[in-house]
Amino acid sequence: MPVSDAVAEGNEQLASDQRWALVNRIAASQHLKGSPRLCEFLFYIARCAIRDAPEDATEQQIGIRVFGRAPGYNSSEDSIVRTHARLLRQKLASYFAEEGHAEDLLLDVPKGHYLPVFHTRNQPQVVVAEPSVALSHPPAPVEEPPVEVVAPAVPTRRWPVLVALAFAVVFGAAALLLTWRGHVPSPAENAADAFWRPFLNTDPPLVIYSNALFEGDSTHGLRYAPPSPGQQPEAEGLIDTYTGVGELSSVYTLTRFFDRHHANFILKRSLLVTWDEAQSRNLIFIGSRAENPSLRVLQPTTDFTMTASPDSAGVVNVHPLPGEPAVFSRPEHPLTKDYAIIALLPGIQPGKHMVVFSGLMTFGTQAAVDYVSNPETAAILMSKITGPKGEVRPFEAVLETSIGGGVPMQTHLVAIRVH
Question: CA 227, CA 211: separation in Å to the nearest integer?
Fold first, then answer.
C-alpha cells in the first residue's frame, strides 16, 4: 500500500509522517513485497503505533482485524498472530541489515509485544512490562533522594583508598548484574529443532495425511478400492473418510511439537489437496503420497520405494549396499515389526522443502514422525545428514520399528542415502 493510497483514504497526517514513509519502503522491499499478509500485518500495527493506540495492537485485536478471526477466539490455541509476528521480526532484521542498511529511522517489534517502536540507529527502543504495549518515548527519570553513608573514622592517609575500593566493588557488582540480566542464554537448539527448522520459520507448511479410497461398509467390512485411472472420491460405492490410527497419532505429535515452537501448520487430507495450493508451500506428507492423484507429479523417492502384493509388503532397496537386503519385508503373522520411509526432498518451487513419512502400515508412519520429533533419535539421523557447513542435506532413509501391544515400540535406522 503506497503513500498515495493512504492519502486517498483521507489520512493526510499519516501519509506525511516519516514513520509511515518508512513502513511503505519496508513493505515495497524485496523482503516483504511477496508477502501480502505480512504487509497487512505491518501496516495495521504501524497505524496503531503512529496513532498512539496500543489497545488496538493486542493479539486478540490483530487476530480479528488482520487475520479475520471471530471476536473472542482462543488465541492460546490459535497461534497465527504469534507465528506472523516472529516471521515479521525476521524480515525486518533482514531489511535493515541489507536493503535498508542506510535507513536512519528504524522500526522494531519487540519480542512479547506487537506494537512497533520507531527509533534512530543511535537511540535504543524502550518497552514497558505489560504484554503487547510499547512506549514511543522513554519515561522521565525518577529522582531518588540521596543516601547518606556514615563510615567510621579512618586515618587521613587511608580513607581515599578505601572509598575508591568501595566504589569499585559497588559499580563492579552493578555492571555484573546488568550483564547477567541482559544476556540470558537462550535454550540450545536440539536435533529435532534443527531438522524441523525449515518448516517452523516460514509460512505455515501444508500437512497432508493419507486417506485412501475404500469399498464396502463398516458392517460387512472395508477393503482398499483397486486403483484405476481418473478414479474420483465421489464415485458411487467409494469411501474416502477413513484414515489410520498412526496418521492420527502423527498429527497429534506434530501439533504438540509446532505448538511448543509457537508455529502453525495447515492440515488437509490427501484427496482434498490441490496442485495450486501445494506448489507454494513446504509440504509434510504423513502416509503414502500415492493416495493423492493430483500430487503424483511430485518428485518420487528414488532409493527406496514400496511394494505390495497379496502375500507380502515391503520397502524395496533400489541400490542395496553390502550387507543390506534387497527388500525390507515385514512379517504378516504375527505382526511384530513394520518399516517406513523418511525422505527430505526439494519442494515444488526453489527454496521449498518436502518431507515424507510413509510406513508400510500405519504403525510405521507413526514411528517415523515420532523418530524425528524426539531429540535423542533425531540426533542419530542428523549426524548422518548434516553437511560440513551445518546444512541439512536431502536424503532418503528406512526405519524399522518393533510392534508390541498394537503400538510401535523401538525404532532404529537401518538404511540411508544422502543426496
Answer: 13
* Exposed/middle/buried for residue 92 (C-beta within 10 Å: 0-12, 13-18, 19+): buried
Tell me which DSSP letter residue 48 carries. H
pTM score above 0.90 = no
What local confidence, expressed as pLDDT, does residue 312 receive?
Answer: 61
DSSP string, 79-142: -HHHHHHHHHHHHHHHHHHTTTTT-SEEEE--TT--S-EEEETTS--EE-SSTT-EESSPPPPP
From first CA to last CA, the distance across the chain in angstroms is: 43
Segment 170-197 mean pLDDT: 60
Question: What is the per-residue pLDDT for 412?
Answer: 93
Q: Angle at the Cα of 287 (from 250 to 299), degrees rounded to 5? A: 125
For residue 316, which of 303, 305, 302, 325 has the smallest C-alpha distance?
A: 305
Q: Is the peptide bond prior to 145 cis by the omega test (within 30 degrees of 0)?
A: no
Confidence of residue 132 (pLDDT cuts 50, 70, 90): very low
Burial readout 109-128 (b: 16 or more C-beta within 10 A, e: otherwise): beeebbbbbbeeeeeebebe
Q: Coil, strand, or helix at residue 45?
A: helix
Cα-flanking dihedrals φ and ψ of residue 246, to 5°?
Answer: -65, -40
Q: What pLDDT, on a 0 to 100 scale, did the predictor assign at position 157?
A: 45
* Residue 418 · residue 383 · CB < 8 Å: no
Q: Which residues pair with 312 in a beta bridge?
A: none
Instruction: Identify whether the C-beta of residue 210 lies closer than 8 Å to the C-beta of residue 286.
Output: yes
Cell of 11: 489520512
Residue 257 has pLDDT above 80, yes or no: yes
Inform me whether the pLDDT recorded for 130 exceeds 70: no
